[in-house]
Specification:
Strand order of the largest sheet: 9-8-7-6-2-3-1-10
Largest sheet: 8 strands, mixed
Number of domains: 1
Helix content: 25-40%
Bound molecules: zinc ion
Number of strands: 10
Structural class: alpha/beta
Order of helices and strands: HEHEEEEHEHEEEE
Shape: globular
Radius of gyration: 15 Å
Distance between the termini: 43 Å
CATH architecture: 3-Layer(aba) Sandwich
Length: 170
């Protein structure tokens, strides 16, 4: 780990906000799932914009922006600094309903479990990029039991990634 990475880790630990539940605007998530199905030959990633409620420790995702140029393949997709910077520039033109609070990605056909890569490059990277508030949503649009969705956050006390309840809202 480089000294820059260590500094970022330290900063992350100081910044982390508790998130115990997440609400997702249904039409936005359905749009993301639709893309996850269309591009199911590879994983896709997206950024969730929304509002963090510190009193109720709840995050509400009000819009989702897919990032179809993120580097990835069938079993991996990465939100790197370059991709995030490009997306950020784009979002400056039309973001008016909140802050970046979530990172979403698809697992076409292999379930919604959070892998070590997801934890290192998904939610921890998102927490750094988004200033300490980060939810990770994983969708499997091709699961043999039907479309699967799971939400995760980082527990500020233990720094562990844990699954949290989500609900779809109008
Ligand atoms: Zn993953």
């Amino acid at each position: 780990m480089s000294s820059t990475q260590i500094q970022r880790e330290v900063k992350l630990i100081e910044l982390l906000k508790p998130i115990n539940s997440v609400e997702i605007k249904a039409n936005e998530l359905f749009g993301f799932i639709e893309l996850a199905i269309k591009y199911a030959a590879r994983e896709i990633i997206g950024i969730g914009i929304g509002i963090y409620d510190s009193e109720n420790k709840n995050a509400k995702i009000t819009s989702i922006y897919p990032v179809l140029d993120a580097p990835g393949n069938k079993s991996r997709v990465v939100l790197d600094f370059a991709t995030h910077e490009r997306l950020d520039e784009t979002l400056n033109f039309w973001r008016n309903d909140g802050e970046e609070i979530a990172v979403l990605h698809s697992h076409p056909g292999f379930g919604c479990f959070s892998s070590a890569i997801d934890e290192a490059h998904g939610i921890r990277m998102a927490a750094l990029l988004f200033g300490g508030i980060a939810v990770m949503i994983i969708v499997d649009p091709l699961h043999n039991e039907g479309i699967k969705i799971a939400a995760y956050s980082i527990d500020p006390a233990t720094k562990a990634v844990r699954q949290i309840p989500f609900r779809l809202v109008p």
